[in-house]
Amino acid sequence: MSALSINISNLSEGVHQRTLEALPEEVGLDGRFSESTVVSATLEKTSRQLYLRAEFKTGGMFTCDRCLEEFRKELAGKFQIVYVTDERAQAGIEDEEVQLLSPEANTVDLTEDVRQFITLAFPQKMLCKEDCAGLCTVCGGNRNLALCDCEVEEADPRWDGLKKLLGD
Q1: Is 73 exposed, middle or buried (0-12, 13-18, 19+ CB in 10 A)?
Q2: Alpha-carbon distance 108 to 106, whole Å?
Q3: Are 58 and 37 in contact (CB under 8 A)?
Q4: 2-16, 76-90, 96-110, 142-156: which has the highest mean pLDDT?
Q5: What is the pLDDT of residue 162?
Q6: Contact, 81 vs 109, CB < 8 A?
Q7: For the chain, which end, N or C, has fewer CB atoms within 10 Å of the first or last residue's CB respectively?
Q8: Could you tell me if 44 and 50 are in contact, meaning their C-beta atoms sit under 8 angstroms apart?
Q9: Could you give the maximum distance between any two Cα atoms of the chain, in Å?
Q10: Do residues 155 and 82 both lie within one domain?
Q11: What is the span of the domain harbouring residue 153?
């Protein structure tokens, strides 16, 4: 049984709370993640389905896409999944958040679902801070640490023809 598995065999009908914790390698996260993943789950069990609402939190050391400095960042998110035990109940629903669960199942393993939702929570551009100034395009210095005196030519050579027409 994995660290992110919930034993449902003796779970009575009603609402239940669980907190689970797993190491990054147990979830299948790469080496940038150095902190455990904590999942706080609320399960609501009925005779025909199991409704799961969960929040996750993890973190690690990442490289800023603008200035290339390493920084610590926490990733967090929420998700929900409905586990149904009847194929007919799932037949009319084409939702990734509805999964078929065998009536004989003793556990629900959240590992793959948590890994996927962490991947979706990962920003396209990883920035150390929203207003990161990045690197100087001339000297390569980190503009967050010090301003340099480099003069940057703002002109795009594709506009040279237009400049000639305007006489500039």
Answers
A1: middle
A2: 7
A3: yes
A4: 2-16
A5: 84
A6: no
A7: C
A8: yes
A9: 83
A10: no
A11: 134-168
